[in-house]
Amino acid sequence: MLRAGIVGLPNVGKSTLFKTLTKKQVPCENFPFCTIEPNVGMVEVPDARLGLLAAKSVSQKIIPAAVEFVDIAGIVKGAHKGEGLGNKFLSNIRETDLIVHVVRAFEDANVHHVDGGVDPMRDAEMIEIELAMADLEVVEKRLRAVEGKMKAGVGKELERDLALLKRLYAALEQGRMANAVAVEDDDRAALRQLNLLTAKPMLYVVNVDEAAASDAAWQSPLGPDRLALPLSVKIESEIVEMPEAEHKSFLEALGLKQSGLDRLIAMTYELLGLITYFTSGEKETRAWTIARGTKAPQAAGVIHTDFEKTFIRAEVIDWKDFVALGEAGAREAGKLRIEGKEYVMRDGDVCHFRVGA
Predict the structure, then answer these.
(1) How far apart are CA 333 and CA 353, in angstroms?
(2) Region 4-10 average pLDDT
(3) Band of the pLDDT at 115, cuts 50, 70, 90?
(4) Is residue 258 within 8 Å of 247, Cβ to Cβ?
């Protein structure tokens, strides 16, 4: 399951965002072997297709895809040296797949800023430097180990790793992120083993005031190279407290089509190249998360590991055809496809996997 860590300086709205997100938490019993700690919330991935599929199948239950959000301990300057809760912060964030970096852009005299004034770029760079310096220690340690092996006449095959480590070291030493370093396909496995903080995908949530949240012409204060989402944590916390029936009219009054939280959840899901396929019947309609490019047997294995081993074929219907015709109608109309082991799954596939004993 996708795990996103929320980071940020004190008083930027990080913890309020986490608390607001967890108001949308899904029941844990739908996800086996999942232990939820006080600072972890498993949040539904919004997908309008689920309700349409469930209505067609007259399903008793709907189970959405989910993202785990983790409220990472606050960061202060010097965190990579252990300042504040630095060590705890670093260990927690290394366990995540993606970083949601909350940056403050709203003015409020009643909310103190640790550096005395609001400056989104300065704040973003401060945390980036902390992450880069922590990664620099990891890369330096590995670099010394590889160089030592090569001097001793062993590990000659590590020359490629050495070249990668040197490129990473040069970037991190300047406070640049590892995900900005050009990496060949053959180097990706070595990069993953390092588990660098700055190699993780990062989404910047710019915590703005109400006017900026509904401004279609909003421009990020973080420049074009950082993927940023404008979101008013204050507004979002008000929305989740309202009856669901009032959400749409409230958003329309603000000139918004979708809540910032829904956009945030969907963007975290998409950033890792994930897609959704569905199973739908009278018992339940359920969304399943897989990586883009996954083949049918591996997709079946997400439901149960034995299904991958005993996979025979997949009966696949595009979700739009399923909603329009139902399973039986799609079969009669020739909209149901029989796919084998080499089939690459598509977002929106509704599947019935046939497996052996």
Answers:
(1) 20
(2) 86
(3) low
(4) no
